[in-house]
Amino acid sequence: MPSLPVMASGKIDRQAVQNRLPRLDVDQSPDSRTGPAPLAGKDLIELRLGQLWADYLPVQTLDRNANFFSIGGHSLLAVRLLAAVEKEFNRQIPLATLFQAPTIALMSDFLRKGDSRQDVWSDAVRMKKGDQHKAVFLIPGAGGNVLYFQDLVQRVPQTYNVYGLQPPGLDGRTPPIDNIPTLARYFLDQVSDIVCSEDLSDIVVLGHSFGGLVAYELARLAQIEGPGLRMVGILDTAAPQLQEQVGRDWSHREWVLHLSQIASHMFNEDVTLTPSMLESNSEIDQIQIFYERLVSSGVVPEGTRPEYVSGLIKVYRSNLAASTDLSPPEKAIENLIIIRSRDEQPQNLITDAAAKNRTFVDLGCLNAQGITSQCFKRRMRLHYGKR
User: What is the per-residue pLDDT for 190?
Assistant: First the structure.
């Protein structure tokens, strides 16, 4: 549809617009809507697109299959929304796109097919827009996938903006950063830029698992250079002194097998591979087999590039191989909180049971506080793929 249909008076014919929309059979009544909360998405494109829809549409919750025009969208909002989408994704998008792809899911598919830009995979992702000049920055565990924070994000007070920090390499082409101090510096630069551009004054940094080590190092650097941090949270992170480099001598096949176990645990979907499935296959074919298993199980959406899996494996390997020999802070880091889950990973995924009982006090963080949460894993569960 090259242009909007109009009536004889010259006004937009909204009924004609509705008649030309694809029939999605989506019940939009509040009681029947069972879709995700705002900003939840199957991948980063849906996550970012969902945030834009939430900014422009007068609804409390968004379903990825909800029709733009059925939940309050109109022609003026369409122009504004597409302008925002073009700016966010640096793509020229015809107005007709919103009529051909009037849902977050369909528009994401449109964007995904033509999206190969590296910054989608390395920029900080705004996961929630807050009401005040406050922000929470989330650092993910090994592999760098910020999407599993979505359930946690919904529980952050509305006064806070929430950003997910992504490491380089998730595009499958950019070399990943292989040491914690350099990665912490990379993230601190992003945090500083956002704090400055958004005029933020109340800053919280949370790091999960491997990300807790990066959060600690980021806090140590911020002590010297700024910005000031109100709180640093270290979530389910073993003490660095007791951590061992994992898989130093593993083959590519062993890494893929290990990551398939981790993915099965995190996504609550059986995507585990066996050695026989990868036997005599090249590294490229091993990635393709894992990719197809993730897609067929609904863990990643169709249309996702296989490079995503390649990038995930490379970042995961570099994270776990990174040295954890971190420097102590010049003085105790203020308001450092350590949160541990009572729910452990399956025994075959635990490499050092003693590490779970150690804290960061040995590094000089004398103000550290410990909190145990039985439901932390459930709060962190991923919200893409099947439930």
Answer: 94
Provide the strand spans (E) within 69-226. 125-128, 134-139, 160-164, 202-208
Q: How many Cβ atoms are within 10 Å of 8's Cβ, its own excluded?
A: 6
Q: Could you tell me the end-to-end alpha-carbon distance of the chain, in angstroms, rounded to an integer?
A: 36
Angle at the Cα of 342 (from 338 to 348), degrees rounded to 5? 110
Instruction: For residue 121, give the nearest of 140, 104, 103, 106 by alpha carbon.
Output: 140
Q: What is the pLDDT of residue 379?
A: 39
Contact 150, 127 (CB under 8 A): yes
Token pair for 346: 């399956």
List the one residue out of 224, 216, 164, 160 whose CA is nearest residue 190.
164
Beta partners for residue 135, in sequence order: 161, 203
pLDDT of residue 268: 79
Say whether the peptide bond before residue 227 is cis (omega within 30 degrees of 0): yes
Predicted confidence at residue 35, as pLDDT, reads 34
Instruction: Give the model's pLDDT for residue 343.
Output: 58
Count of alpha carbons within 13 angstroms of residue 111, beta-carbon side = 28
Helix axes 252-267, 307-321, angle to 10 degrees: 100
Which tens digits make up the pLDDT trace of 303-342? 677 888 888 889 998 988 888 778 788 777 878 888 876 6
pTM of the model: 0.68
- Domains within the chain, CATH numbers bracketed: 14-115 (1.10.1200.10), 118-387 (3.40.50.1820)
Per-residue pLDDT tens over the stretch 94-103: 666 776 788 8
Residue for token pair 């399956």: 346
Closest CA to 178 of 263, 245, 258: 245
> What pLDDT score does 10 carry?
60
Give per-residue burial for 137-151: e unless 16+ CB within 10 Å, then b.
bbbbbbbbbbbbbbb
Spatial separation of the C-alpha atoms in residues 259 and 385, rounded to whole Å: 17
User: C-alpha distances in angstroms, 383 versus 13, 37, 277, 307?
Assistant: 38, 10, 28, 21
Give the residues of the chain that fall short of pLDDT 50.
1-2, 21-39, 116, 118, 349-368, 370-387
Structure tokens at 152: 């946690």
Q: Which tokens hold the place of 342?
A: 């009572």
